[in-house]
Amino acid sequence: MGKINDLRSYMTVLQEDGRLAAIDQPVDLVHELANVAATLARMQGKGALFTQPKHDEQSFPWPIFANAVISPDTAALALECTKEEIIERMNFALDLKNGIPPKSTETGAAWKENVITGSEIDLHRLPIPTHGLNDGGPFITGGVVVTKDPVSGRGNLSYNRMQVLGEHTFGFNVNEWRHVMQFYKHNQAKGESLPVAVAIGLDPAIMIAAGARYDGDELAIAGAIRGKAIPVAKGVTVDIDIPAMAEIVIEGYLPPNVRHPEGPLAEFHGYYGELWNSPTFEVTAICYRNQPIFQTIVPGWDEHIYIGNVLPREPLLLQYVKHVSSKVTGLHIPPYGNGFSAIVQIEKSNPGEPYNAAMAAFTAHVNIKQVIVVDPDVNIYDPADVIWALTNRVDWSRDTFLVHGAQGHEMDPTADMRGVHTKIGIDATYKPERRNYGDRIRYPMLDLNQYIKK
Fold it and tell me: What is 252-321 written as a DSSP string?
């Protein structure tokens, strides 16, 4: 059985792998914390634990963790597999027949060790960061929203940005196509509120599961990843099954006919989103473990994209491209492409295969607007290697094709308001029939500790 069953055990795994940085000096919740976390993610590939969050003269006793799943390396640690096995493992977990439903715990929930209700609730006392420079204020971004279908009773996990609007009120952003909105509209039609819980500080299997669009309870995905049922417990003020090992749980409800502007927030496409007239979330309880760890996701950055756009979609794209070519050897949706780009690795046997693979990737998911097809000698996880292939293996007049007027994502900055734009496929494979350069130059990477004395 694996080592990971909650956030704390995962942080131990990160530390053992040299991927956890502890920042022990005071760091401001407004912009500074996100700036440090983003730097650690992109430059060193490390998780960040801030032990002394502050703002102005106020200090906060709860540490903050960021950068749980930011790359293939950390995803492999979270999924307890190798990098090469990530897509296979996710494909297994996303298959409904492999899901393992959650089960009620017999020992109780860790987050019930401390409970705040009524007039004692004050959201301003929580260490909620203001991440981006133009964000509208402090937002919960790393909390997993737990709801229940009012018709079938099945559980549901999702991510919804939540801006602090008052001592006990959040703005609650939810897209029209989300299951949560379906539940909300069902209860709204009856004049009833929708109960909601927000679980913060979780086993990354649950975080990954919450980023998927799934026809069942997403906790079953987390169960499939871990190979065992995720323990859950009923809320204190809401009738919802909540992951028992969460660090912090915020409970409450969405009133049926209340809306309030919230935003903007840094979004996955790399720009700041707009103000939205969203439902509000009225908090009825704040529950937490002893010495809890608050968890955040830096919005519009690697983890935001990796959990929401990469891990749930790579298995789908791989399935489609392998259907048109059995020679596909790898596939990656890089976080730096905002979930709009895909890199396909292929050992081609026909000069037309790269185009077929690119078209299959476009068909697999509407978001994909750029597909780069490379050979097995190109590291699809290394942007520098991909750029090398684009530079040295693409004749732009012969090795690209455009798909005009295609449906994309409405929030893609290059698309119109309905998501219509032009997509591009790029054959960045080697073509020796045009000009044979032979083998690439390669230098093996060595252990410098054998050569440099510390």
Answer: EEE-TT-EEEE---B-TTSSB---EEEEEEEEEEEEE-SS--EE---TTSHHHHIIIIITTTHHHHHHHH
Give ∠ CA 293-296-297 in degrees, rounded to 5. 150
| Residue 159, both tokens | 């991510």
**Position of tokens 């979270």?**
78
| Single pTM value for the model | 0.88
Q: Compute φ and ψ for 83, nearest 5 degrees.
A: -60, -40
List strands edge to edge, sheet with 241-243: 103-104, 231-234, 241-243
- Name residue 328's beta-bridge partners: 346
Question: CA–CA separation, 174 vs 369, rounded Å?
Answer: 24
What is the residue type of 262?
Answer: E
CB atoms within 10 A of CB 181: 17
Strands 162-164 and 169-172: antiparallel
Structural Rg of the chain based on CA atoms: 23
Question: In degrees rounded to 5, what are phi and psi of residue 367?
Answer: -65, -30
pLDDT tens for 259-306 read 999 999 888 777 787 788 999 999 999 999 999 999 999 988 888 888
DSSP 48-111: EEESSEEETTEE-SS-EEE-SS-SHHHHHHHHTS-GGGHHHHHHHHHSGGG----EE-SS--GG
* Site of tokens 């737990």: 146
Query: What does the pLDDT look like over 88-110, one tens digit per residue?
Result: 999 999 999 999 999 999 788 99
CB 400 within 8 A of CB 426: yes
- List phi, psi (to 5°) of 399: -110, 20
User: 244 is written with which tokens?
Assistant: 């028992």
User: Do 50 and 33 meet the contact criterion of CB atoms below 8 Å apart?
Assistant: yes
Instruction: Return d(Cα 47, Cα 155) in angstroms, integer.
Output: 29
